Amino acid sequence: MKQLITNYYIEAKTTKEKPICWITSGGPVEFLIAMGVIPVYPENHGAMCGASKIAVGLAEVAESMGFSQDLCSYARLDIGGAATQNGAIPGGLPKPDFLLCCNNICGTVTKWYEELSRFWDVPMFLFDTPFIHKSKPGHATEYVKQQCLELIEFLQKQTGKKWSDDRFAEVAMLSVEGVDLWKEVLKTAESRPSPFTCFDAFIHMAPIVTLRGTQEVVDYYKLLRDEMQERVANGVGAVADEKYRLIWDNIPIWYEMRNLGNLFAGNHACLVADTYTTAWAVDIKIEDPLTSMADAYTKVYLNISIDLMLDQLLALIERYSADGLVMHSNRSCKPYSLGQYDLARAVTERTGKPALIIEADMTDSRAFSEAQTRERVDAFIESL
Amino acid sequence: MSGEALDRLMKMRDDPYAAARAWKERTGGKVMGYFCCYAPEEMIHAAGALPVRITGENRDISKSGAHLQNYCCSLARTGLDMALDGTLSFLDGTVFVHTCDTMQRLSDIWRLNAGFAVHADLVLPVRFETSSAWDYMTSELASFAEGLEKELGPMEDSALVESIKLFNRNRALLAKLYQMRLASPGILPYDQALWCSTSSALMDKAEHTALLEEIITDLQAGTATTDGSGVPLFGIGSVMDQWDFLAMVAESGATFIDDDFCNGRRYFDFEVPEDVPPVEGIARRLWGRSSCPCKHVPSRDRGACLADRATAAGAKGAIFFQFKFCEPHAFDYPHVKKALDKAGIPSLNLEFEQGSVSIGQLRTRVGALVETIKA
Fold it and tell me: Cis (ω within 30 of 0) for the bond into B293?
């Protein structure tokens, strides 16, 4: 995996002929792959900066430029990284030729990419996916489908290349194959004991997020699936003597992942599934890729109402035979976090299973108290 | 003070929702709350209901803390608190417009907990200036109108046309009031001008329009109430409801000459075109009005627009007055500040939360800005 991601970043940093497009994590990357564009994900880079504990320093650069400390920490560290040509990749992320921003994960990305568009002086395409409160009206599907066509126009103009439906069908097929394999990987965690924890999934999700639609991703997840299925067959669990099975909600606390993993594992608790990595398990129908993509990209977990999120949470709890729910209330991410208090109560009311809420931030460790979290996790496990 | 009509309007400021409660009692009609000024008020009005804007208030949170984290804006937190403790019990329903991430989630939380009979969402496009976004917007507005009809009763086209005329008349008068102040700021303190605009979203539109007519006549006849020599400032933010702050700014020797607040200029600028079908007209206004930072309008540089407007108004300085935790405004701040700097307009960035504004601390900073400008 490390090799796969390293090769990807080396190509992105050294390419002379391929254009580079910065894209949001929920964006329709298949269009870029089909046009031979290298997608670069500031959010993936943000996670790397968080995990390697350099996020705060980069965020402080943006703060010194006038960006409030209350803004999303991915955005802050990315803006700081761009300004100083710095980050988890030597010399920072490669300069974009254009930007693709999809607001199905938040409105934050719209503002963040507007700033990137000004900073790099490159064009930005906003792929606007109307939020779903109850059901998706026909005109919303039509709007998103039309934008797929506008995006194709935009990419032709930016790259000077001609769009090929055949090439796109090929990429869509590979994307479906990769997504299906990723689902199979996640499914192995239904076994007791689970062969991996969500902390492992957070690491292994990088290819499905960034390189979906390529053969390398398909090959990678075949290997991973086989390995996980073998572990299941041999009864190998990720956590020694697994007693409790839990669901994680929200983006990981990247700088604290190892400690948190150990803390839960030490209590024989395995985080078997999460609402985050399943976000990339969207359905695309090969007969009509544009319509089904428009549909899939609009219906992602963060673009639906609390009621619809609750249905998915309850389904996860049942499917993975979970004993409780751990929610990261993430200062950086309002669409993910606002509503968690209601969701936590609803889950407990409906299933009788407890929920723990940890207040933190995905990469800004200044918003995290280790001692307090440790205490609360211990108390929560005792309550199971 | 310059007359009875203004006195009447100013009294309302102590109890902003008294007029809506009285209207409901008097008419037996339905009252529909909304947060965002992209809400198509004319549609609510044409369906026979009273649209009332909810903007939170200065208060300590008692009930909404169980639903909203403390890292979202006080507009959402105090607004929900008012719904949960009965302060907004005169509402029959609420309209939520897709504004920002917080409003989007507040809509769900509100629907699940506040217990009002009617709940309507209007999911406007975020991306403007493309034909697909325009088609989506008009379809969404039409289906929103249909939904409102089901809840509130029929909305005849002719009624909608009349509502549009009335609301346009009100907008024109508010624009005139702001224009008169631009020419001679001394005729009316800024906080009163802003309240004229703010209160328009809180009471019966015909009644408010009649008051405005009277106020303008009185102002035209009267003489300046203040000396008008204060340093002219431009205000930038979303909702500005901190009247003590505005009084302090006046005491510090400055006055806002114009603003981009969404209960100020942004509430009333641009009229609905009356020569097209009504729903299309409403869409055109929302499409063309000066934009909120929540909308992506590629051809428009918000920084340059605001710097131009501040310059045209003759402002010598600007104050950003922003809700803490408001992402759309905070993301734009460095860019807009740069544009103001370039135009030679010094500015001050103030963050606030309703219920915990410390006038003393802000006084020092406003005083320093005023001194800089005077120097």
Answer: no
- Per DSSP, A132 falls in state B
Q: Where are the alpha helices (DSSP H) in chain A?
A: 2-14, 30-34, 42-51, 55-64, 73-84, 108-120, 138-159, 165-187, 198-204, 206-210, 215-233, 257-266, 289-298, 306-319, 334-337, 340-351, 370-383
Q: For residue B17, how many C-alpha atoms fall within 13 Å in the half-sphere facing its CB?
A: 21
Closest partner residue to A137 among B106, B108, B143, by Cβ? B143
Query: Which of the following CATH numbers is that of domain A2-166: 3.10.20.740, 3.40.50.1760, 3.40.50.11890, 3.10.50.40?
Result: 3.40.50.11890
Measured between CA atoms, the residue of chain B closest to residue A106 is B101
Determine which of A74, A104, A105, A111 to mutate to test the interface with B (most B C-beta atoms within 10 Å): A111
Decide: A75 and A112 in contact? Cβ < 8 Å: yes
Across the interface, which of A66, A111, A131 has its CB nearest the CB of B328?
Answer: A111
Measured CA to CA, the distance from residue A281 to residue B177 in angstroms comes to: 56
- B146 and B273, same domain (yes or no): no
Question: Count of domains in chain B?
Answer: 2
Is the pLDDT score of A280 beyond 70?
Answer: no
Q: Please tell me which of the candidates B136, B294, B334 has its beta carbon nearest to residue A139.
A: B136
> Could you tell me the residue range of the domain that residue B130 belongs to?
17-156
Chain B residue numbers touching A135 (CB-CB < 8 A): none
Average pLDDT (B239-267) is 96
CATH of the domain at B112: 3.40.50.11890
H helices present in B12-100, as ranges: 18-27, 41-46, 74-84
Please write the tens of the pLDDT for every residue from B10-40.
999 999 999 999 999 999 999 999 999 999 9
Q: Is B102 within 8 Å of A334 when comparing Cβ atoms?
A: yes
ipTM over 0.85 threshold: yes
Provide the pLDDT confidence category of residue A293 given band limits of 50, 70 and 90. Answer: confident
Three-state helix/strand/coil letters over A163-204: CCHHHHHHHHHHHHHHHHHHHHHHHHHHCCCCCCCHHHHHHH
Percentage of the residues of chain B whose pLDDT score is greater than 90: 95
- pLDDT tens digits along A25-74: 999 999 999 999 999 999 999 999 999 999 999 999 999 999 999 999 99
Provide the CATH number for the domain around residue B223. Answer: 3.40.50.11900
What is the reported pLDDT for B1? 47
What pairs with residue B323 in β-bridges?
Answer: B352
- In chain A, domain spans: 2-166
Least confident of A133-137, A203-207, B1-5, B160-164: B1-5
Q: Are A13 and A89 in contact (CB under 8 A)?
A: yes
Q: Is the pLDDT of residue B291 over 80?
A: no
CB A224 within 8 A of CB A43: no
Confidence of residue B224 (pLDDT cuts 50, 70, 90): low
Last residue of a domain, one of B114, B133, B156: B156
Q: How far apart are CA A76 and CA A68, in angstroms?
A: 9
Contact A107 B294 (CB under 8 A): yes
Q: How many CB atoms lie within 10 A of CB B204?
A: 17
Q: How far apart are CA A129 and CA B126, in angstroms?
A: 9
Question: Strand pairing partners for B319?
Answer: B235, B348
Residue B2, pLDDT score: 62
User: What are the φ and ψ backbone dihedral angles of B171, each rounded to 5 degrees?
Assistant: -60, -40
Q: What are the start-end ranges of the E strands in B41-100?
A: 50-53, 93-97
Alpha helices in B222-288 (DSSP H): 243-251, 265-268, 278-288
Mutate to test the interface with A, among B84, B136, B301, B332 (most CBs of A within 10 A): B136
Tell me the pTM: 0.97
Identify the CA nearest to B281 among candidates B292, B270, B291.
B270
Residue B193 within any structural domain of the chain: yes
